[in-house]
Amino acid sequence: MSTRDKVAIHKLTTGVLGLDEIVGGGLPEFSFNIIAGAPGSGKTTLAHQFVFANATPERPALYFTVLGESAIKMLRYQQQYTFFDPSKLPGSIRFVNLSQVVLEKDLGAVLAEIIKEVEKFNPAVVVVDSFRTMVRRSQGGPGEIDLQSFIQQLALFLASWQATTFLIGEYAADELRDNPIFTVADGLFWLSQIAERNSVVRKLQIVKLRGQASVPGLHTFRITDGGLQAFSRTFGLSGHKSKPPSQRRLSIGIPELDSMMGGGIPEGDSVLVTGASGTGKSVLATQFIAEGIRQGESGIVAVFEERPQAYADRAGSFGLDLETPQKEGTLLILYLRPLDLSVDETMNEILDAVKKIGAKRLVIDSLAGFEMALSPGFREDFRESLYRMIFALTGIGVTILSTVEVDESFTEFPFSTYSISFLTDDIIRLRYVSIDGQLRKILVIIKMRGGNHSQDIREYEITSKGMIVAGERLKNYQRLITGIPERVNRSGEKEELPRKSKVKSKT
Amino acid sequence: MARRLFAEEAAADGTSLTTRSTILRVYEKLRRSLCALAGVAGFRSLASRALTLAKAEAPSLRAMQVAEDGSLEVCGETELESDKHPAEESGIILLAQLLGLLHAFIGEALTLRLLRDTWPNIVFYDRDSGEREQHEHTR
User: Fold this and answer.
1) DSSP state letters, A271-312
2) Which of A28, A168, A200, A369 has the fewest CB neighbours in a 10 Å radius?
3) Where residue A388 falls among pLDDT bands split at 50, 70, 90?
4) Nearest CA in chain A to B106
5) Pairwise CB contact (< 8 Å): B110 & A65
6) Helix B87-118 vs helix A71-78: angle between axes, to the nearest 10 degrees?
7) Contacts of A99 in chain B (CB under 8 A)
8) Is B42–A98 a contact, with Cβ atoms under 8 angstroms apart?
9) Are B37 and A70 an interchain contact pair (Cβ–Cβ within 8 Å)?
């Protein structure tokens, strides 16, 4: 069937930040949906957000309350959310209490009451809260219509009356099977909250949605003053086209290092700078950002271990001005340190910042701090989440430089304690080395996915002007990467490493 | 507010006097509106609480009770009247308690919206509007 022959399904906004993208652009009009989950998972709030976003005086919303939370208390609490617009009551949103009918009569009478109200108000949106308590009351006695028949008739009627419907229920995961309501439903929204150590993680899943593709999997959501806010696993970038690979190289602001990398970092790459504490990872990262700003490329620094002011002050001590670009709006230093953070929320913040200033460069300093800022439940998925985040950001052309601390070992040469090397296109390894009774620093380019790079092991210093790669490659040593090299006596060659008397170490 | 509702209903009868039937009519309108919102049981519990509070102020309400369906049952002919509280005052006290409870639970804005829905011919202004409450007969 050609596109022209297909019926166009109008999509309604869910009223929930981030959820429209997850459901594939909005909720199909006239669909019959279930919102399921445990008590306190946000079912009623989600329904309210949808209702307030879509109800109009011409096509109002009918909100049937049944036995659960009393309507008065529901209004008392729900009006605390910013989406709650009292001017919509009762003209655009009408609450109808069905408790008496449910308590005293059977499902047939309940159906008749719903039909009566729907015919009277011609609503565009119908909510039954809680549907579960309503059907629990049904005893299935003689003469009563059975549950399956009730659901079928209700779904048919509401679809015919062009209403988009939500039935809210407290269901457990094992009730998904053999329940007629889940068979009839066009859409099934599953909300859950899982306690992990001292934190709670809220997840949302679109188990089923007829007529359009939704983003699969479990999506993090939060309940804030504004109601639910959902964070898509694809970070809202599923519909974006990846930027074609660029041939451009971005300078790090350290000429010798640029040369070692064949002219700089390929645009859109993910670079990992790894090394022990004090080796200068943050300095390198700051120089990368500062150089970008100098060249007119906006940047974002996501810090987890120190506050933005401290970060900017430290950059200032290396002659790098991060204050002015912040004032001019070309640099944002994001401090992301609340515990219970999810990667998706972090990503949301970073993406907002990228869009806000059109950032081309991003520094994550550091991955260890990032991981610590996450809720324990998210730490297990850190690598997978990081992969999705880096893939999404580099896909839109942002060049990412992440730092990660590794334990300095004098017998091994680990790239990263997180086994996340596969996430990166390029790896720069910094390390301490013991030479001539001094603890000096060397760097090496471990990998560059986008092309050739120098194989040299070079010595560098952290000076008052930042990182400076000094001298030629260290030719007269073996086992440099162990940190305890051995001098090699080459024929006719003498070791020419200058002894450093003043090395300012600032990281 | 309660006084205004009674005055409005009395005016509809073409009188300035609030009679027992006026009181019951105001209460009944509110009952129907709130039962649709909160259910019969929800309204009955609110009304019972309001009546209990009102009885402390107006002992003449002692003979009244809230029926199963939330309606007001008056036992006898003269219970609403007393030297201290004429019928009008007793009715106002009861209604004021009921509106006060609503205000406490759902706030002024929503309470006024419910009243506007029940008495569409009265214009209510909340405190935020910065205007004095006033009647406006649109018919």
Assistant:
1) EEEEE-TTSSHHHHHHHHHHHHHHTT--EEEEESSS-HHHHH
2) A200
3) confident
4) A76
5) no
6) 60
7) 39-42
8) no
9) no
A94 contacts in chain B (CB < 8 Å):
36
Amino acid present at A373: A
Cβ atoms of residues A142 and A80 within 8 Å: no
Tens digits of per-residue pLDDT, A5-49?
778 889 999 999 999 999 999 999 999 999 999 888 999 999 999
Contacts of B101 in chain A (CB under 8 A): none
Chain A nearest-CA distance from B125, in A, is 13
Residues of A with CB under 8 A from a CB of B: 65, 70-73, 75-76, 79, 86-87, 89-91, 94-100
Report the alpha-carbon distance of residue A65 to residue B130 in Å, rounded: 34
Identity of the residue in B41, B106, B117 whose CB atom sits nearest the CB atom of A75: B106
CA nearest A158: which of A167, A145, A146, A169?
Answer: A167
Amino acid at residue number A1: M
Distance from CA of B51 to the nearest CA of A (A): 18
- Provide the pLDDT for residue A1: 62
Cα end-to-end span (Å), chain A: 63
Q: Which residues of chain B neighbour A75 with C-beta distances below 8 Å?
A: 105-106, 110
- Give the C-alpha separation, A468 to A378, whole Å: 38
**Which residues of chain A are within 8 Å of residue B42 when distances are taken between CB atoms?**
70-72, 97, 99
Interface confidence, given as ipTM, is 0.73
Please list the pLDDT of chain B residue by residue as tens digits (139 residues). Answer: 778 888 887 777 776 666 677 888 889 999 998 888 888 888 898 999 999 999 999 888 888 899 989 998 877 654 555 545 566 788 889 999 999 999 999 998 889 888 888 888 887 776 655 444 443 333 3
Weakest mean pLDDT among A163-167, A290-294, A465-469, A487-491: A487-491
The domain limits of chain B are 2-132
Instruction: Look up residue A233 and give its amino acid.
Output: R
The whole-angstrom separation of Cα A289 and Cα A366 is: 14
Among chain B residues, CA nearest to A71: B38
Contacts of A287 (CB under 8 A, 6+ apart): A252, A253, A254, A318, A320, A466, A467
Chain A residue with minimal CA distance to B118? A90
A-B interface: how many C-beta pairs under 8 angstroms?
A: 59
What one-letter code names the amino acid at A37?
A: G
Going from the C-alpha of A323 to that of each of A140, A309, A401, A403, A507, the distances in angstroms are: 71, 9, 20, 22, 19
A97·B38 Cβ contact <8 A: yes
User: What is the radius of gyration, based on Cα positions, of chain B?
Assistant: 15
